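hey so i finaly got around to running the thing on 3-dehydroquinate dehydratase from Campylobacter corcagiensis. pasting the sequence first so u can double check i didnt mess up the copy paste, my clipboard has been acting weird all day
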Amino acid sequence: MKIVVIQGPNINMLGTRERNIYGVMSMEDIHAQMKAVAEQNSVEIEFFQSNLEGEIVDRIQECLGDADGIIINPAAYSHSSIAIRDAIAAVNLPAIEVHISNIARREEFRQKSVISAVTAGQIIGFGPVGYHLAMVGMLQIFSQIEAFKK
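ok and heres what it spat out for the 3d tokens, dont ask me to read them lol
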């Protein structure tokens, strides 16, 4: 099984940017923890980050036939990108949306995600540990898919 982790704009600035909101862990630290969980569960994992919407759409489309699930933090694009939403819907893979901060407690324009309607679920507000929770969720989805095949 393979998970592709897609990080949106400014996630590459974690550990530096607005530490009071996003914490002190870097994106690389988060990815290292996710990689350890993947290895423990014999799952392949790949990481991608872009500040450009079209590159994110392209990477989602490339998952078709290459991945079994997507963990995505679309960041600011969560609130506006119909293109990312449509790409996730088009590949028809299980996807989990992650947000480090609790977007429901943020500015009004951040409270609605246009992406969430096409994901298996959302994990918001748990800080960087949200990525670990997404890994656990994706592993559970994989387990259910395998059980259904039997």
